[in-house]
Amino acid sequence: MTGEPDDLLPLFFSEAMERLEKIEDVIGPESDRDQVQSARRELHTLKGAGRMMGFTVIADLCHRAETLLETYDRKIYAQVLPVLSRIRKEIEGLHDQKTTTGPSPDPMDFQAVVDRPRLTGATSSKAEIRMPVKTLNSLSDEGARMRVLAAGAAALVDRLHGIALAAESGVVTPHPQQALASVAVKMRHLALETERTQRRFDRLVEGHLQTLLSLQVQPVRPFLLGLARHARELAQSMGKEVDVQVKATESRLDRRSMEALKEVLLHLVRNAVDHGLETDKERYDEGKETPGLIVLGTETVIDRIRIFVTDDGRGINSQGVLQTAVERGFISSAVGANLGPEAILQLVFLPGFTTRKEATGISGRGIGLNAVAEAVRNVGGEVWVVSEFGHGCTITLELPIAQRGERILVIEVGGLWVALPAAIVRRIERRPSSSDESSSSLSQSVDLIDLSRALGLVEASPSLILHLTSGGRQMALLIDRVIGEEEVFIRPLPSVMESAPVMEGMALLGNGRPVPIVDVQHLAMMSLSEKASVEEKSHVQQTLNVLLVDDSRVTREMLRRLLSDAAFRVTAVEDGEAALRSMKEMAFDCLVTDIEMPGMSGLELSRHVRENPNTAQLPIVVISTLGSAEDRMAGLDAGADAYLTKQSMVTGELIDLVRRLGGGA
Known about the structure:
Elements: H1 9-26, H2 33-53, H3 56-68, H4 74-101, H5 110-113, H6 133-171, H7 176-216, E1 217-219, H8 221-237, E2 242-247, E3 252-254, H9 255-260, H10 262-276, H11 280-285, E4 292-301, E5 304-311, H12 318-327, H13 333-337, H14 341-345, H15 369-378, E6 382-388, E7 392-400, E8 406-413, E9 416-421, E10 425-430, E11 447-450, H16 451-454, E12 464-470, E13 473-479, E14 481-488, E15 490-491, E16 503-508, E17 514-518, H17 520-537, E18 545-549, H18 553-565, E19 569-573, H19 576-585, E20 590-593, H20 602-611, E21 620-624, H21 629-637, E22 642-645, H22 651-662
Helix pairs in contact: 1-2, 1-4, 2-3, 3-4, 6-7, 8-10, 10-15, 15-21, 19-20
């Protein structure tokens, strides 16, 4: 592979990846003759381009795949798959080598060179966005027009000052009525002119924002195709026969959201292959067709996108979920008896929840869904699961297409203004005057939450019922009144409010007033916990042995006192080696560990615990200052049952987790 023209390499890479994605999109176990012929044509063209560039290995691999496709069936598919994978690695290897030593990508096709989604490696902090000349011209023109409007607005301000001076001087004249009438006429004309200018400015700003946002969004399909390749390779390594289909049309998503959710979606796909789909023998015994099916798809709903991961495997046993939730103290049996199937399934997103009894090297113990939910909420989205036991599972992520201002509904409750995402609000109705609320449209499966009491505010007499759908679950909030709807930017909570888990952010309204954003999913979990509290308090709780590992003496002592005050027997050590020695000397009910420690890290300690048959089932809670989605996934993949960040940890949350995971509730 020598002697290629440097200026043609970016163009070759762009074309090769485009053709390879078309091939991978049509080739599957059930591909028909037309699809196979289409793939052969693409391979033939790619082979010719490779030979012209001097890339003989790529050309030979294309020829090999093309030959295999002459007589195509399922057995041939198993032979073609590794060849296509090798072609991709060769092409990406060329690109990686060139981008580390050569010139920038070719600017002729900005979509082909901007942050092509990949499953490995980090996005460069120096990534560039290249745009068509038409878009650049549009941005320049819009900027110039806004500058003209701004100058016009300045002239309006000058006229307003003149009118104010005229009003002041007119007051002291012998006939102030005439002066004030003249001022009133001038003010009316100025108001009309200002209104017209404001409308033009609004339209221009909105168009300018849309142009900028168009540069931030990118097609989701190429990324899903990459996930599909990974799923096929993973299934092949596990000896499972899997058909992976991508059903995504022209759906697009903000590149920042896609980057933030890259590890999340990879985790869901690995879960589908590892936990969701049965082995070929199990499917045969159950009368299911082979191969198993995984579908990665998208659906655009107005200004939001839904990304779903579906498999036709084992599904989720809702009764098993309910039993686990009750046994581990998430809810009481009385509360569980009143939960509908949809509400039960949403329990899998709770911290530390898992029905898996053993870990695997592929996707842990099925316990990453809480981290998935948190990562999705961080980009303004929601996640929910739908499943039929024995017939498969679908996990859906609903996200705003672009990270622009989010529309919120501002409400008042107990004298406080708070806000909710407007997208989850379904309707508002007046609360029945009678204490018997059977006349409202609430069904027994809908949680009715008094928001004032949930926020710890002064008890009020709420007059409205706000109906919501969050995470596929129906809820209703009792509130005092609706203030209105606004588009805002949501910011993290200030440090003084970080201990309020029912709030997930803060927004500044157009009038400058700050309002907190309610975390609706946390509110729902609070409601379940509250219903179960009376029954739980009557239980005599078992004393648990907890092993605490942290290299900071201050942090270790603070956590030791915290856990001891909760009536746990705590053994506190300073590093992973000391923890392993302690586990040889006595049995523990739960391990609480930091990640960043000298010598053996918390991740290495977690892996040691999972690999040892004597401790493989020991619950692990990780507490760390590292809080990104990648850090959380790394902790969960290492075997942790729950991952908490020190900066946002709530005391009761840690105690409840240890008690539930350790079996003391």
